[in-house]
Amino acid sequence: MNRIGKILPIEGYWVELQGTLPMDYAKSLTHLYQPLIGMAAIILYQTLLHEQEIQAEKQIPQTHHTLMNYLNLPLDEIYAARLRLEGIGLLKTYEINSQENRVYTYVLMPVFSPAQFFKDPMLSQLLYHHIGIEKYDVLEKHYSSNSSDTYGKNITASFQDVFQTVTPDSLPKMNQEQPKQGVNMESVDFTPIEQSLKQRMIPVKKVLTTYNCKMITQMMFLYELETYEIEKAILWALTEENRLHVDEFKAACYDLFQSKYKENHIRLVEKATTTEPQKKNQLTANTKEEQLINHLETISPKQLLEDLSSGHHASEQDLRLVGDIMTSQGLPAPVMNVLIHYVLLQTNMKLSKNYLAKIASHWSRANLKTAKEAMAFAKKEVTSYKTAKKPVARNRQTKEVVPEWFKQQKKQQKQEVAATQEDKEDELQEQKEIEMLLKQYSNHNK
């Protein structure tokens, strides 16, 4: 990844600390965070932390050239370390473009205490995979030892048990986003999982608690699992009381990861490309088809159904049907989006269960992974279907004696003209369908 030129030495920065650090933050940085993000990122965090105290006495921002001297590192390595801090949730970066140059504000997020770190499903699981079970057990026992265990059962009353405050309706609304500690991740659409649990008469609120939803999201991104795979792991890890057994769920996710990726190991590695180039590619899509593929790659099947319904809620029946087929056939969400689009166009915008299941089974055997692959496969299917439907021209009887080569030439010319005309009509119809879908997206997102 080319990082040269991302930051210039002359560009300035401010440092702020959001919240307060735990007493044993240094232990967390050394033993728990450092194996995940490396020494350079830890040194950068500590340097910025102490820089914040110095900057409180100054009125001008510090330059990155000074930071290079402090760390004795080139600027591209400092930028890489910054990205690692951002990715693990320890740093937020803001940028202001002035007439002279850019100025950054680095907001340091509080480090988890060791006890908090081991309670975080994602970070603790990552550490487990990075350092191995023996070292992990040593650290966990050392930092999780609690002297209060000898006191007996904790019967301390909570705030809600003792006090009553204002009613929920009279609470002021908070417009500002509340800062969250830990790794930032995209939200997950739990609708297919909810539908599956309801089908099996499993109480959704018992399984998808706030903590469980966060933990499920973390495991999903950690092991790069699809929604249908997460659903399998949840069903495997349910207790007799229909509660999610966290350790069994983690083990199930890891088993699915191993069977899916064979010999791969869970480790934090930097992506070959960042999200910025991906967004750029989406913005510079040359054709309407590329725009459509980008849409189908990034939205959920639920969003697609709502977009095609002019923004109305997708019906529970359609969501259940889509969820069942995704689970049974193991189709990724982008492929399912193309499948929904394809079936609706073939059946006059009606979502036929039998037809959808039949095509899904075929596409599952084709092992399609992306919306682009699914779109190309769908085009190929339509072309082969139309070719098979073409009537065979019968040889007309004629009394005239015409050379065979002349008849073949005329026949070939007619076929070429007809094929060209049909291809143009197909292409025109396809463009109309794509434009119609894109129009629905743009109207819904205004």
Descriptive overview:
It is a single chain. The chain is mainly alpha-helical. Among the domains are: 12-112, Arc Repressor Mutant, subunit A (Orthogonal Bundle), CATH 1.10.10; 185-269; 275-389, no CATH class. Helix content is 60%, strand content 5%. It has a 4-stranded mixed sheet with strand order 2-1-4-3. Strand 3 and strand 4 (102-108) form a beta hairpin. It is globular and about 95 Å long.
What share of residues are in beta strands? under 5%
What is the arithmetic mean of pLDDT?
A: 78
Spatial order of strands in the largest sheet:
2-1-4-3
* Biggest pleated-sheet summary: 4 strands, mixed
Structural class: mainly alpha
- The percent range for helix content is 55-70%
Sketch the topology as an H/E string, one letter per element: EHHEHHEEHHHHHHHHHHHHHHHHH
Low-confidence stretches: 168-178, 273-283
| Rg from alpha-carbon coordinates | 29 Å
Can you tell me the overall shape?
globular
- Separation of termini? 35 Å
Number of strands: 4
Query: How many helices?
Result: 21
